[in-house]
Every structure is written in C-alpha cells, then in structure tokens.
Amino acid sequence: MTFSRYIADRVLEIPRSGIRDFFEVVQTMTDVISLGIGEPDYVTPWRIREAAIFAMEKGKTGYTSNLGTPKLRQAVASYIQRRYNITYDPHSEILVSVGVSEALDLALRALLNPGDEVIYHEPSYVSYNPSVLLCYGKPVPVRTSVEQEFRVLAEDIDRVITPCSKALLLSFPTNPTGGTIPAADLEPIADLCRRRDMIVLSDEIYSELVYDGAEHTSIASFPGMKERTILLNGCSKSYAMTGFRVGYACAPGPIIEAMMKVHQYAIMCASNVSQEAAVEALENCQNEVVTMRSDYERRRNFIVNRLNEIGLPCHTPRGAFYAFPSITPTGLKSKDFSLQLLTSKRVAVVPGSAFGNSGEGYVRCCFATGMDKLKEAMDRIEKFVGELGRS
Ligand code: PLP
User: Fold this and answer.
1) Which of 28, 138, 192, 319 is the Cys-Cys partner for 210 at CB 3.0 to 4.6 Å?
2) Which atom of ligand 1 has the smallest separation from the CA of 102?
C-alpha cells in the first residue's frame, strides 16, 4: 500500500527534524555524553513539584477554562508586569498553552492566510520554518552572523519586506546561537514594524537566561508595540519544567480570541496539574532561577574558553544555554563533524545545518549539562580535533 497518497502534500514536503533523527542514533549507543538536547539538566525545583503533587491531592484533575486557570493567568500578568514592565489584562489578553510550541502554532494558525510571509532570523529554532509551512505561510529567513553576535538588524529585515510580509518572528535570546539583542537594537526594529504595519511574534522562552548582569527587554515594551506583538513565553527553560508543558501567549484581546478558537477545538486546555505547578513557579521561584542562571553562566564561561583553546572559535553567548562554535577550521561539514565525533568519541552535538542554511559551519553544544560531563566532553572533542589535524 502506498501511504503517501493519503498524506497531505505539505506534510510530505516537510523533512523530519534533523535533531530527532540524530538523537535516535544516540539512543542506541552507550557511554555518550550528550550536549545535544536543549533541556535543563536540573530536576524541576522541589516546591514546584510539591505544588503539582498538592494539586493532585486536592483533586485538580479536570479540564480548566480554555484560556487557562484564572489563577495562572493572573500569575502570568503579574510576572510579566514585574519582570518586563508590560501590562496585560489576565481576563482577555493571556492564553495558557501546552508549551511555547503550541502557542507558536496557535499564533501562526490564527494569523496566516496562504502565501503570507513570515520573516525570521536564522540560524533559528528548528520549528520555525516547518511551523510556518504547515500553516500555508512562506518562511523568509534573514541571515545573522557571528560578526553581529547573531543579532538581527532592522536594515536586513527591511530588505526582505514585500507586500505579502505579515509577521516578524523574533527569538531572543536565540536558540542555537545564544545571541541577545539590546534595547537600542530593538528600537529600530520596533519602528520598522510600526511603519511597515507588521505583527511581531516574540518567542522569549529564554528571557530569564541572560548573562553578564544584562537585562532582557521585550519588544512589546516599546511604545505602540504591545498592540502589534504576540509575546510567547513559558516555564520549560527558566524553571526546568520541560515535561510539564506550560507556555503562554500575551497579546491584544482580538488576537487571543482568535488563538483561543484554534486552541479550544484542538487542545481544549493545558494540564490542570501543570497549571497549578506553573503558578508556584511564576510566583515563588525567582531565587531558584537566579541560582540556575549563575550556574549556567559558570558553565558557559568554561565551555567557551575550552572550545576556543581547542581551536574551534566560539563567540560568547549572552543568553540561553548553547555554545555555537565554528567548526570550519576542521574542514568538515557540520553533519560530518557531528557524526564522526559521535562515532569516534561518543559526544553528541547538533549540526548547525539543522538550524537553517546559515547554521552550516557551526555545531550547537548545550551547556545545561553537569560540569564533570562538560569537562569530559571537551577533553574528548580536543582529542577528536587533534586527531583530525594529524590525519
Ligand atoms: N522556542 C524555542 C526558541 C525553543 O528553543 C524551544 C525548545 O527548545 C521552544 C520554543 C519550545 O518550548 P516549549 O517546551 O515551551 O514548547
């Protein structure tokens, strides 16, 4: 039976995630140190787990409001006000989703007509391009470079705008580069979006993971931008809660209403227990966030130093938990580098090409991994690169 005739063309045309394929191979191997998956190595802080247990004890096991529990929407509103100085109405401007992943999909499905263009910066999170395609949109990547610390510039965005450009998808701090964007560089982008009447999807999932004492600024905080921004954030990375699957979108009421229509028919609501846990995270866990952040910063300093010592030039990521070293000195393509490193030294990194064409020449190393493992991984990479040099 030829199943492809039953499967929608747009799904057939989308390749499987390069990361997933790679990690299926990793799972069949032993003694691998994985710097691959973008996930905190911490277990969720105890008080959050306890809130989830308590929620179950109290029997909070049913559906919630489609938008999310009033308590969590209020907690999100207070958190965003406190941390990023933007005011959202918890009754009409916040929707709780199953991770940022779902919120992104809802936003794209709510906004896009066939052929609408979505501009995004690249290298970028693996989901952006396929998510736009699955919504019949046209993804338009803008290349960013190490020379600009992987920041996207207003003039580069301006250059690709056409009458079909509907949305700009920003993601700072960035997965996989660790790039951040200072307020001074966001301002001309905000200005451009207002002038060219574009809506912004701002994925700020790494907003708590900004280093060197810097502060994260949301584009929604600029004058006139709250009205044209869908701010996406969640608990996965900041609170080590990937498995709880809680994200949220903050946006003008009519946009939330449109997203809610898709959400209520596709998903209904995020898990009740997870929402209770998320309230605890947002209201009471800033100390835990600070501790994890300073630990990540220590690991970042270590891994960036070591990669540069090894001869793989690595810029200093200012946010998220990824180092993105150049592998061009080895003469290998990123996929070959990653496969050879995996088979010969049992270290898993992600080929930069998984993040778009502009990621070629790099690999992503997640440093949300214990220091002892990071040290061993760097020693193994050093040996690997040394042996390449001799062969
Ligand atoms: N956005 C970015 C930039 C990410 O790196 C990830 C996960 O790696 C996600 C969204 C998905 O997050 P969630 O677990 O909230 O669905």
Assistant:
1) 319
2) 16
Does the beta carbon of 176 lie inside 6 Å of ligand 1?
Answer: no
User: Is the Cβ atom of 273 under 6 angstroms away from ligand 1?
Assistant: no
pLDDT digits (tens, 9 = 90+) for 253-312: 999 999 999 999 999 999 999 999 999 999 999 999 999 999 999 999 999 999 999 999
Q: Chain centroid to CA 298: how far?
A: 21
The side-by-side arrangement of strands in the sheet containing 247-250 is: 94-97, 247-250, 229-234, 199-203, 165-170, 117-122, 138-143
Residues of the chain with CATH 3.40.640.10: 62-283
Q: Is the CB of 204 under 6 A from ligand 1?
A: no
For residue 132, pLDDT over 70 is answered with yes
DSSP 319: B
CA-to-CA separations, 117 to 172, 190, 199, 355, in angstroms, rounded: 20, 18, 11, 19
Cα(250) to ligand 1 centroid in Å equals 16
Task: Give the confidence band of 391 by pLDDT, cuts at 50, 70, 90.
Answer: low
pLDDT value at residue 6: 93
**Residues linked to residue 18 through DSSP beta bridges, in sequence order:** none
* Residue 361 φ/ψ, nearest 5 degrees: 95, 0
Q: What is the largest CA-CA distance in the chain?
A: 64
Domain boundaries for CATH 3.90.1150.10 within the chain: 3-44+287-384
Which residue lies with its CA nearest to atom 8 of ligand 1?
38
pLDDT of residue 173: 97
**Ligand 1 midpoint to CA 204 (Å):** 9
Question: Is the minimum distance from the CB of 90 to ligand 1 under 6 angstroms?
Answer: no
Domain 62-283 has CATH 3.40.640.10: yes
Q: Which of 76, 236, 355 to mutate to test the pocket of ligand 1 (most atoms within 8 A of CB)?
A: 236
Substitution candidate for ligand 1 out of 128, 237, 241, 245 with most atoms within 8 A of CB: 237
Provide CATH code, domain 3-44+287-384: 3.90.1150.10
- The pLDDT score that the predictor gives to residue 115 is 95
Whole-model pTM: value is 0.96
Q: Which atom of ligand 1 is nearest to the CA of 101?
A: 16
pLDDT reading at 147 higher than 70: yes
